[in-house]
User: Fold this.
Amino acid sequence: MARRGDGRTPEKRAPRPERQAAFRLGLSAESRAAAYLIAKGYRIVARRWRSPVGEVDIIARRRQVLIFVEVKARARLDDAAESVTERQQRRIAAAAAAWLAEHPDDVNSDIRFDAVLVAPRRLPRHIPAAFEAE
Assistant:
């Protein structure tokens, strides 16, 4: 651990309040998205799955289809739909490849990249095959 010049370890600063609020909003949106997918017949395999190359918000399965889901929360569903960038798509695809490397039983599944859009006072919107992996 790095030390300050006086020999003491540095104090860890608390995250800024806006970062804490964004984190809580994200967790809430992911919980709503997961509940919505369960209601549609999916089984949640993992949430907030991290790899060295990226994170996947939700990994779910229904029959032979394994889906990697990006959850987006915005004030309006249309704004959420526009917020899945190409960079995020590449990160999710790389994380999906890492998942498949760690879970060889899933290699024969049909793979899909979905999005679930979340907005206040609205049902989540599930977009199957929201993007393709390159």
In short: The mean pLDDT is 84. The radius of gyration is 17 Å. The beta strands are 43-51, 54-62, 65-73, 110-118, 125-131.
